[in-house]
Fold this sequence. Notes:
With 634 residues, the chain is an alpha+beta fold. It has helices at residues 2-63, 65-116, 121-126, 129-171, 173-220, 222-227, 231-284, 299-320, 323-340, 434-441, 464-469, 485-490, 498-507, 511-515, 534-548, 564-578, 613-619, 622-628, and strands at 287-290, 293-296, 352-358, 364-366, 374-379, 386-390, 395-402, 411-418, 423-427, 449-454, 457-458, 471-474, 483-484, 524-525, 552-556, 582-586, 598-603, 606-611.
Amino acid sequence: MEQLRHKKKAGNLLRLLQYLFSHYGKRLTLVAVCIVISASASVVQTVFLQRLIDECITPGLTAGLPAVWDSLVSIILTMIVLYLCGVTASFTYTRIMAGVTQGTLRNLRNDMFDRMETLPIRYFDTHAHGDIMSTYTNDTDAIRQLIGQSLPMITQSFLTVTVMFFMMLYFSIWLTLVVCCFAALMLLVSRKFAGASSKYMMAQQKSLAAEEGFIEEMMEGQKVIKVFCHEEESKKDFCRFNEELFSVGEKAHRYGNSLMPILNNMGNVMYVVLAVTGGLLVYFGAPNLSLTGWDLVSIGIIISFLNMARQLSQTIGQASMQVSLIAMGLAGAGRVFDLIDQVPEEDHGYVTLVNAKRNADGTLSETDHPTGLWAWKHPHQADGTVTYTELKGDIKLEHVDFGYNPDKLVLHDISLYAKPGQKIAFVGSTGAGKTTITNLINRFYDIPDGKIRYDGININKIRKPDLRRSLGVVLQDVNLFTGTVLDNIRYGRLDATDEECIAAAKLANADDFITRLPDGYNTMLTGNGASLSQGQRQLISIARAAVADPPVMILDEATSSIDTRTEALVQAGMDNLMEGRTVFVIAHRLSTVRNSKAIMVLDHGRIIERGDHDSLIAEKGTYYQLYTGAFELE
């Protein structure tokens, strides 16, 4: 299991690097060059520090300053140039990485949102919305730290240690062996502490997400909490979430914060051991082995070595502190790529909805100008001909079976038809399959068995955007977006004029309350229309469907959240809206379906009764018992 997890992290890292280079290859190449210059400059300066001591300071103490002046100026100028090169390179790659990091996050968010908009409804029905939101916030923030901080620091640390190792060998192999022993011990300690910190950091992220979800739930349910005096229980529940977050967070930072002091102290011990060892080598004049051969250890070599040893311990410590951030970043990248890799909604349809005009012989043809007449453009693959069928709203279901899970059917052998202008009502208890039928008409889900025909065309042949453009839907749960009332109505048809939106509002009987708002139709709505009543929000939703002016309307419990007085207004508006259209109505209030052409009574996914109101009442079956109150809808 652990091996599989490491493989997944490595795969996420490789894909993230490929993603970075595909968008910012040239910039990252420049960053790599700058990091090499920065790392090399910081280490190579120690060579000139050794020369400064051995060629200038030590001889100058006996021969005088004039004797070493030229060498002193040359070495100091060289060190200044190296320092300026290192600072310039660091500044350059830091600035570049800031742009690369934010640009990558922008691209990832765009890719996620683009993919999310192509996903089927099934994905959103099976994934918590808070979990999806977390990929846009917590996971992208973890990637930000990984790209902008951890990867550059790890890269520079690796290059610094590599260059430093060869520089140490250049000075003294004996002292290098001492450093290697301490470095191996420091890496072992770092691995243990960083691994534990990484583990608890991941747990902290999960606990943080759980606590944020709980807080969001409590904020949305404040009225219910206060009505049922549930404040103390909510506090206890929050304390439980908070205590869990504290526990894993305390452990994560305990290991993380303990690592640097331990490494610093080990570095201090290494510093002392090197100083003593080097001092003994100088005192006894012991031969020194280096890459250049046998020589004596000088004061300059010892000081340069001590400087590199200090720099090495700091580099290892800084790199070790990034391990947990790298683990979090790679986990976040995995979740982001999981969303991007989701399979888009399949659409094999080729029949499209076009503006049409009626020719002199009564046939239809396509036109680029809006005519108010729509037709299905049907290219026939067999002979290459194209036919046009007028959009009327004739819908027929033939022996439809469907289940959200293949092993459990929700609908069984559903057959019904709705002629243009007819109102079809679905009645039944919760879970009977009413909403599922409308989901199939929208092609939110495709059926494995049976057929659904729209104006005689199998809807599987119709492109989903064109199919949905011909349908208007009013849901029980209303979603209003941040913007003006007019903008929310225009959401039904983006090219609708202000006059058309106002006319749609009047048709839905929403104009009266809208004109009484502070800024009328220009009143800003936020928080899903929190300042409006449920009934007012539903009226705007109905106006939104009205402005779309589709030939088929689906009303899913459209009046269930509206009071009796408002229901009368809405019902009158809906009667105007439904005139001349094919309408599917799902309702708990049976008074709203009395004038339906046909009423379908569903039970456990089967149509058990069908007919108009009077005939079903005469049968004295399930509908009669529901209508008279003998049974109640659940």
